[in-house]
Amino acid sequence: MAATQEEIVAGLAEIVNEIAGIPVEDVQLDKSFTDDLDVDSLSMVEVVVAAEERFDVKIPDEDVKNLKTVGDATDYILKHQG
Amino acid sequence: MAKIKPSKGAPYARILGVGGYRPIRVVPNEVILETIESSDEWIRSRSGIETRHWASDEETVAQMSIEASGKAIADAGISVEQIGGVIVSTVSHFKQTPAVATEIADKLGTDKAAAFDISAGCAGFGYGLTLAKGMIADGSAEYVLVIGVERLSDLTDLEDRATAFLFGDGAGAVVVGPAQEPAIGPTVWGSEGDKSETIKQTVPWTDYRDGTVEKFPAITQEGQAVFRWAVFEMAKVAQQALDAAGITVDDLDVFIPHQANVRIIDSMVKTLKLPEHVTVARDIRTTGNTSAASIPLAMERLLATGEAKSGDTALVIGFGAGLVYAATVVTLP
To answer: Record's NCBIfam families (chain A) (predicted)?
Structure first.
């Protein structure tokens, strides 16, 4: 069953917490991965791969650079999840 | 039809000795910061690199190889005349004909050993090791020298923020010889030429000669794509190499991945779920990424510092431009 927006944000928060050690409550739609959440370009790849597994979605390398905020990633997953 | 006698070699092969050569000049991140907008902290956090070695004019590909090989031969306890093959993996020897392996074989004093260069980027050591094992198995050579050597400082764009800090120079060599028990596992290797744009030389030499570009060619890469492939696809290859050798991560003593980036190494360790007791090579911190030379250099250092010991079981995996990869399990010399 497809995940809702809330479930995706909660899932991303757990992933970001696991990879970058950021408190889950800090992971909000308007937060930038690099500027607000200390997720650099390499950690972002780890976030993306974890999100792919969790939400059954493919996020190609060329799309990763467009996912600036948690909201961008959430919208992408909502649109592309299997 | 005439009957051809079959070739006859040793039942198994093993690495008998290892040697390394690191150029005298140590280059700290401060020097890199003279040509790019960055910081020591950024370079360390993205790559783990603190210093690297850059070769002088005298520290040629051949000279560094001869130094490393001499140590490997002494470590193996054989005489140079016993060496029947010299395989050199490099992408940074700028005089491609003749192969630099022939000069190295001659200057070392081998007795007309078969000698040739291979080009397999950062997987070059594993490719060379696999060839050596085959040569020993079929009796084409009793002892084979496998050398990984690079002067990547010659192929570095010092104004490229993403790669200026990454590369280093050096040579690593091993002597492979006959054994009574398996000491080099099956190689899991391959190529993915559809990803050739991921890591590459910017332009062919001829473009520079013809003046169609101003800058000398350099190695460039797509960092995120490389990171994803290296960590997640190569972890699968590493696991396949363990399976092929019939062991699990619990049986491992040492993990020596190609020293591409400490973040790749750390993520591979996590993805492979390596137990705490496994010693992990992180030679990149003071050596940089030396492509084909990185695995034997890291092996030599782990043994020299006592972090690993002779007889330890090590997983080695190289991966890089091609894209190409090679992984196998070896017993350390």
So the answer is: PRK00982.1-1, PRK00982.1-2, PRK00982.1-4
The whole domain housing A40 covers 3-78
Q: Any idea what the CATH number is for the domain that residue A26 is in?
A: 1.10.1200.10
The whole-angstrom separation of Cα B216 and Cα B309 is 42
Over residues B302-316, the pLDDT tens digits come to 999 999 999 999 999
The alpha-carbon gap from A44 to the nearest alpha carbon of chain B, in Å, equals: 8
Active site (annotated) includes residue B29: no
CB contact burial B13-45 (16+ within 10 A = b; e otherwise): bbbbbbbbbbbeeebebebbbeebebeeebbee
B161 touches chain A (CB under 8 A): no
CA distance A15 to B294: 32
Chains A & B: contacts with CB separation below 8 Å? 28
- Which residue in the list B53, B93, B258, B261 is annotated as catalytic? B258
| Domains held by chain A: number | 1
One-letter amino acid at B318 equals: G
pLDDT tens, position by position, B219-250: 999 989 999 999 999 999 999 999 999 999 99
Taking a contact as any Cβ pair under 8 Å apart, which residues of chain B between 254 and 293 contact chain A?
A: 261, 263, 267
**Amino acid type, B115:** A
Residue B167: pLDDT over 90: yes
B231: which chain A residues are within 8 Å (Cβ-Cβ)? 45-46, 49
Question: Cβ contact (<8 Å) for A45 and B231?
Answer: yes
- A33/A39 Cα distance (integer angstroms): 5
Q: Using an 8 Å Cβ cutoff, are B175 and B15 in contact?
A: yes
Cβ of residue B42 closer than 8 Å to a chain A Cβ: no
ipTM beyond cut 0.90? no
Residue A57 pLDDT > 80: yes
- The one catalytic residue in B29, B93, B261, B289 is B289
What are the pLDDT digits (tens) for B135-153? 999 999 999 999 999 999 9
